[in-house]
Amino acid sequence: MKEALWHIPLSITLQNGMPRVFRGPYDALDFLEYEWPNHSRWRHRAIRDCRAALSGIVAAEIARASFAAACAEASLALRDAHAASRSEASAKAAAERQH
Fold first, then answer.
1. Name one Pfam family in it (predicted).
2. Whole-angstrom Cα distance, residue 71 to residue 11?
3. Strands lying side by side in the sheet with 10-13
4. For a disulfide at 88, which of 41, 66, 72, 73, Cβ 3.0-4.6 Å?
């Protein structure tokens, strides 16, 4: 299984203030499964999409959009220019359009 990296990595600020960079679905999936701060609808969708991206079923960018929406839902600040310009609603809408 070869991981497809995202075109633009996502950088978030964790609840403890530490920055964290996610370069692709594998990084995001590991975080979602073992370190995520809460259980939510978007977390579950992001896990599903990251697994699908790692299996080659969907494009890695779909997993990225779902992960960004999950971050917004969990109030984790997105720090890259592309994702930071989105509001929570537009991040969720982007993930919805991908499905």
1. DUF982
2. 10
3. 19-22, 10-13, 77-78
4. 72
CA-based end-to-end distance of the chain: 23
DSSP secondary structure code for residue 92 in this structure: H
- d(C-alpha 37, C-alpha 47), whole Å: 14
Q: Do 29 and 54 touch, CB atoms closer than 8 A? A: yes
Domain ranges across the chain: 10-98
Kindly state the DSSP code that residue 11 receives in the 8-state scheme.
Answer: E
Cα 3–Cα 45–Cα 71 angle in degrees, nearest 5: 85
Q: Which of 66, 71, 37 is nearest to 52 (CA)?
A: 66
SS3 19: strand
- Does the pTM exceed 0.90? no
What does DSSP assign to residue 10?
A: E
Q: What is the pLDDT of residues 11-52, one digit of tens each?
A: 998 888 888 999 999 999 999 999 998 888 999 999 999 999
Q: DSSP character for 12?
A: E
